[in-house]
Amino acid sequence: MSERAVEMLAATALLMVLVLVLRRPVARLFGARAAYALWLAPALRFLLPPIGPAVEAPAGWSDAGAAVATAIAMAPVESALGSGKILLWLWLGGAALFLAFHLIFYRRFLIAALAGATPVTHSGIDDAAILSSDAVAGPAASGLLVRRIFVPRDFSDAFSTEERRLAIAHEVLHHRRFDLWASAAALIALALHWFNPLAYAAHRAFRRDLELACDAHLLSRADASMRQAYAHTILRCVARPVPLSICALTDHDELKGRIMMMSKDHSKARRVAGSTLAFMTAAGGMMLVLPASAAPEQAARESMTVRKIIRIPGASDKHTAIETANCTGELFASNTSSAAKDGEKKTRILLCGKPGASNAQSAESLERALAGIEKEADLSAESKAQIMTALKARIAELRAAN
Q1: Cβ(68)–Cβ(52) under 8 Å?
Q2: How far, in Å, CA of 355 to CA of 212, rounded?
Q3: 298: pLDDT strictly greater than 60
Q4: Which residues on adjacent β-strands are paired with residue 352?
Q5: What is the mean pLDDT of the chain?
Q6: Residue 354 has pLDDT above 50, yes or no
Q7: What pLDDT sits at residue 384?
Q8: What is the pLDDT of residues 183-196, one digit of tens each?
Q9: In the chain, N or C terminus with fewer CB closer than 10 Å?
Q10: What does the alpha-carbon distance between residue 67 and residue 352 come to, in Å, rounded to a whole number?
Q11: Cα distance between residue 97 and residue 113, in whole Å
Q12: Which pLDDT score, from 0 to 100, does residue 243 have?
């Protein structure tokens, strides 16, 4: 798995923890919409390119600059991936299976919901088609491009006119707020974190906050009687399980929390303050991952030797070279070339010393690098012998000068 992918997963997981800690106190102080806005922090980190310093190739192999302890061996890029490539495919394969499962579940739900569904007339609603179906026990918004609202068969008989109006208004608001798009994005993020139990807890909390924010939006100008009617409607709309990309009015787990939140009416000033806090958290979250972006470079500076396997392209080589950081205190450099099917393969070995290291320490570093080159299967025997002979001579020089 690439460093950028690992960084993205670690950073978004860290921000999920931050939101899980903040969401309840923020909801109490500033309202449900402010708590829902906190999820911008992991969402932006997930969607935007990673923030971090770019590592540029050096102008020269021993130019002055920030010294790093690096041992570099050139070989095919495929060799460099090693176990990381296996982890990458496992990660992507797990994400694909996760998404496939939920897409199949959604497709089956949609087929069942549309089978025998009949249109329901509701005045003043042109945002979505309202369909009566046996597949739902409560109202549910569905569809990203084709907007639908499914209601149970007994919707007209079991609910009063006011209750029907409020339930439909809630689902229409989901469409208008693009909540289903947010749910789909959250499902993709969960797929990429399929191995992380924390992500499942965050996803459940996100869906609860989405519903609470929709409630708060609908009731933002409601009087006491409307709030009471809406609470009564929610109590009667406990829904069966539906796909995670669909918005259902409520489920058993949400009843108490949603009704408690309805009793709170936050002032406009508090709501604005809460939204500001949420956006600041999102912006701060992007800055929070900067140390993680710089971590690989810092680790390289602190280690004695860091070995990377790359290929320098030959005359007809189509692979792209992987460059590295600047190197000072050059301890050893060697160039070899060998014939390959796709042209001449050039090999460059460069070992850089840690600032202030003694000759003995440098020799020990080179001996570790020598052991690695001895095990390198992608170097030809001729190249390996040439490099090892030159490297042993350099170690002897350092030992003699000590």
Answers
A1: no
A2: 57
A3: no
A4: 330
A5: 74
A6: yes
A7: 78
A8: 999 999 999 999 99
A9: C
A10: 8
A11: 24
A12: 79
Residue 129 three-state SS: strand
The residue type at 26:
V
| Lowest-confidence pick of 16-20, 93-97, 273-277 | 273-277
Q: In whole angstroms, what is the distance from residue 36 CA to residue 205 CA?
A: 9
Contact 150, 135 (CB under 8 A): yes
What's the average model confidence in pLDDT over 40-59? 62
Residue 355 carries which side chain, given as an amino acid letter?
Answer: P
Q: By the 8 A CB rule, do 199 and 161 touch?
A: no
State the DSSP string of 212-238: HHHHHHHTTT--HHHHHHHHHHHHT-P
How many residues would you count in the chain? 402
The CA distance from 320 to 63, in Å, is: 23
Structure tokens at 183: 């749910």
Residue whose token pair is 């339930």? 167
pTM over 0.70: no
DSSP of 282-317, one letter per residue?
A: HHHHHHHTHHHHHHHHHHHHHSS--EEEE-B--TT-
Contact 149, 164 (CB under 8 A): no
- pLDDT tens by residue, 26-39: 988 888 899 999 99
- Map tokens 């994400």 to a residue: 95
> What are residue 140's DSSP bridge partners?
150, 248
Q: Is the pLDDT of residue 359 over 60?
A: yes
- Please give the Cα distance from 127 to 130 (Å, whole number): 9
State both tokens at 310. 């790359």
Q: Which residue has the tokens 């992007």?
A: 286
- 150 within 8 A of 175, measured Cβ to Cβ: no
Phi and psi, residue 202, nearest 5°: -65, -40
Asked whether the CA dihedral 83, 85, 89, 92 is positive or negative, the reply is positive
Q: Let me know: does 288 contact 15? Beta carbons within 8 Å.
A: yes
Residue 124 to residue 140: CA distance in whole angstroms: 18
Q: How many CA atoms lie within 13 A of 108 on its CB side?
A: 9
Residue with tokens 């604005």, as numbered in its chain: 272
For tokens 């176990």, what's the residue?
83
